[in-house]
Amino acid sequence: MKHLQILCFFLFMSTLNAQSIIGTWKTIDDETGQAKSVVKIFERDGKIYGKIVEVLNAKSQNPVCSECSGKNKDKPIVGMEIIEGLSQNDEVYDGGTILNPSNGKSYKCRLKLEDNPDELQVRGYVAFFYKTQYWKRVK
């Protein structure tokens, strides 16, 4: 009986983990459908952050954010935090920003798990204009 309880506990915990946005995600370009990078999403001080851990098919060996301004100007893209300060609000995470290293611009951000817990809806927006990508969980 004790073994059954332990097994149920671990199954329950794995289900919770599968429903979390915390983890590693492959970014998919919404225009080309191609994978661009790998982002690790994590929690720090009760907020959600994400940093690029790998750039896929990069034209250069160590790409930098030449279009960025401020603290990220000409900094390496690998290791850069691109998602900052999101909070959970029911089924979505919002209230923070996302940086697009391709153009150096920051946008308000909203993240939401799709019905498939291995697909993450990533939306960057300014006022009523938004752009949505669907990232795939890296297993």
Q: CA-to-CA gap between the ends?
A: 32 Å
What's the structural domain tally?
1
Main beta sheet strand tally, sense and closure: 8 strands, antiparallel, barrel
- Largest beta sheet: strand ordering: 1-2-3-4-5-6-7-8
Helices and strands, in order, run as HEEEEEEEE
Q: What is the CATH fold-level name? A: Lipocalin
User: Helix count, per DSSP?
Assistant: 1
Q: How big a fraction of the residues is strand?
A: over 45%
Averaged pLDDT, please?
Answer: 88
CATH architecture: Beta Barrel
Any idea what the radius of gyration is?
17 Å
Give the C-level CATH assignment.
Answer: Mainly Beta
In total, the number of strands is: 8
Helix content percent band = 10-25%
- Label the overall shape: globular
Signal peptide: 1-18
Organism: Winogradskyella maritima
Domain DUF2147: 23-137
InterPro entries: DUF2147 (IPR019223)
Structure description:
It holds the Pfam family DUF2147. Keywords: Signal. This is DUF2147 domain-containing protein. InterPro entries: DUF2147 (IPR019223). The protein has one helix at about 1-20, and strands spanning about 25-30, 35-45, 45-55, 80-90, 90-100, 105-115, 120-125, 130-135. The chain is mostly beta strands. The protein has one domain (about 1-135): Lipocalin (Beta Barrel). The protein has an eight-stranded antiparallel barrel with strand order 1-2-3-4-5-6-7-8. The longest helix is centred in the first third of the chain and has 17 residues, at about 1-20. The chain is globular and about 40 Å long.
